Amino acid sequence: MLAGAVSLSARTWTSADDSKQLEGEFQSFDAEKNEVAIEVDGKTVTFALDKLSKADQEFVKKQGEDSKEVDVAELFAKAKTHHLVDGKFEEMQFEGKPDYYLIYFSASW
Known about the structure:
alpha+beta; SH3 type barrels; four-stranded antiparallel β-sheet; 2 helices; 6 strands; disordered N terminus; SLA1 homology domain-containing protein
């Protein structure tokens, strides 16, 4: 019987020269510094991206593509929104990012 705690998103990372490996979970990628942060045994370690294997570099870049920040101001500028004026809904256009957000979710099971 094998017992232990392993993160479901942990993976084996390999050095660029294929001489070292470590088990860890991807945390973040800083494109400006070209550094990747990986959590290993509860601690975050940072590596220059070029210190990792080509496969790991591609994985990191893919994660970055999947998690690009959303420009909220751009979304609101494109959205067709309405507000209530004197008991009637009127179309409105946002200018810039809202100061606050209200999120309402309702589901029926």
